[in-house]
Amino acid sequence: MYRVVPLLLSCMLLSAGCLTASEPPAEAEIVLITPANPAPIFDGRATYAGIIGAETPQIQANYSMGCVAIPPGNATPPHRLIGTTELVYVIAGAAEIRCDNETVTAREGETVLLPEGVLQSIASVGDADLRYLTVVQPPFTAGIEIWGDGLDTLDIVTDERPIVVADPRTGIEWNLESGVAVYTLLNPVLMNETAIPVGYSLAYAELLPGGYLGYDGINGSSDLLYVIEGEIEVATPDGAAIRVPAGSAAYVPPDLVKETRNAAGSTTTILSFIDPAWTPEKTVLFE
Fold first, then answer.
1. Cystine design at 93: which of 12, 67, 130, 278 (Cβ 3.0–4.6 Å)?
2. Is the Cβ–Cβ distance between 187 and 201 less than 8 Å?
3. Claim to verify: residue 159 and residue 113 sit in the same structural domain
4. What pLDDT, in 10s, does the model give residues 243-269?
């Protein structure tokens, strides 16, 4: 089992090494995404509420995303996702996650990345419902998921290990000027000491009351901001703004300049999925 130590996204907190933009790109807008109604999966052992995928045809993403809920004592059956990776971020509860011959326990705030094609299952082992984000890249389709009798027809043997991301709350350093701490959880470019088999990067942020990330854009990459707890307001320089409550997300197209502020009276926590993966030279500050 690999453990990845969180890496501070210094370019979002410091302007050194970033470009400066004077005009925002035109003909783009932020999209508010509310999860679809939960639907049963795996013969009713769990439910799935889509966030990115068939539910959002207007968004051309290189991954699919949804929220899975599993009652205590239930589990997804052993299955394989052919040709795709699956990322699991635990929102609530506790998960016992099987990845081939290894099993790990993940709790609230922890992330587990399962390599493509592994024999996997996820059990709810806490006293409350397990809820987690699932991100599949390439995007999920029904044909890639093999379980039940279909497993016997596969000529596949794997022995892969999951990548487990350490809790980002350990050792947080605050930017006292803007009231925000940002940590990288996964980045296949910046964390090249470990082979990370995805094309996007994942960051975790905590915003104190009044905290904000100033106007910036990301050259050539989209940014999906998922609110774990609290609420954010995402605005563009022309005055357009949306409020994003907990459990919903904002999709920011590539190159679009935006500002992100805590819109709640308490600390807000978010996840940022940047695709393709974030690098410092991609960030463009708006003045």
1. 130
2. yes
3. yes
4. 999 999 999 999 999 999 999 999 999
Task: For 240-257, give one letter per residue: b (16+ CB within 10 A) or e.
Answer: eebebebbbbbbbbbbbb
Mean of the pLDDT values across residues 185-203?
Answer: 92
Kindly give, in sequence order, each residue whose CB lies less than 8 Å from that of residue 253, ignoring residues fewer than 6 positions away.
28, 29, 30, 222
Q: How many domains is the chain built from?
A: 2
Helix (H, G, I), strand (E, B) or coil at 213: strand
The pair of three-digit structure tokens given for residue 268, joined into one six-digit string: 């807000």
**Lookup: tokens for 3:** 């453990």
Structure token digits, residue 58 = 């207007």
Eight-state DSSP code of residue 280: G
The amino acid sitting at 170 is T
Q: Residue 211 belongs to what domain range?
A: 2-32+168-286
What is the β-pairing status of strands 2-4 and 163-165? parallel
Burial tier of 265 (Cβ tally within 10 Å: 0-12, 13-18, 19+): exposed
Q: How many C-alpha atoms does 274 have within 13 Å on its Cβ side?
A: 26
Cis peptide before 280 (omega within 30 of 0): no
The DSSP secondary-structure symbol of 58 reads T
What are the tens digits of pLDDT across the range 45-74? 999 999 999 999 999 899 999 999 999 999
Q: Taking CA 120 as the corner, what is the angle to CA 76 and CA 42, rounded to the nearest 5 degrees?
A: 25
Measured from the Cβ of residue 24, the count of other Cβ atoms closer than 10 Å reads 17
